[in-house]
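Notebook B, p. 112. Complex prediction, attempt 2.
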Amino acid sequence: MLTRIDHIGIACHDLDVTVEFYRRTYGFTVFHEEINEEQGVREAMLKINETSDGGASYLQLLEPTREDSAVGKWLAKNGEGVHHIAFGTADVDGDSEAIRDKGVRVLYDEPRIGSMGSRITFLHPKDCHGVLTELVTAASRKADASDAH
Amino acid sequence: MLTRIDHIGIACHDLDVTVEFYRRTYGFTVFHEEINEEQGVREAMLKINETSDGGASYLQLLEPTREDSAVGKWLAKNGEGVHHIAFGTADVDGDSEAIRDKGVRVLYDEPRIGSMGSRITFLHPKDCHGVLTELVTAASRKADASDAH
């Protein structure tokens, strides 16, 4: 069951410049930063609020590390903007299987590793009214806390 | 101060079809539905979670009521997808003035009425790294509760 908006993924050309925009304009600060080589992105998570399911909602700023990554290609076509949205669940495996059974294309055979040690998968935007949709199961709280600093 | 992701605004061709997609695929249900004549949209709010500032996060599904509305023109150009993101604040007036003073274009001189009696304004996407960004102050809880059913 999807119990929160986990994050909004925003593609940008320059992560540092965009982080600085969000800091200067709104006061948002970086909760976590990492490079995901598999996805070909350098990313910053800005924590906006906590959520009623015990999780949190973030902005995820994404700079491609190579032009042929999914985000790199998307950015070349669309320019900067909202790349995807993500819902949080305690069970990304079960939920993605259930959603696949409803005829929505799930992009990975098995969930992969996402931000902060989470497990993630994506749903095909053409099956979701144009919205690239991610499902996320966060790593345990202990892992979250040790990753954060 | 912006204290939550208030909603993600998603433009669609047919509100009823898109509401049914979100219900069937994820189990999300309509919390509130209304027509905003000024914005030229028929919209449904799907409540996803409550937030640590006492508010909530929603998906806002938007169907244009006329082709020459902002959402209608956007949809003709881009197709279905994420139209804007919105942050919640207790003080949309003060925050939009402060953000204007930082050189970001605020699209309304004064906040206008948004979903569920909220007061809203928008920031120019070209000043926000490609993201059309809304600021929202929710109506009082009493008004929210009476609107919800």
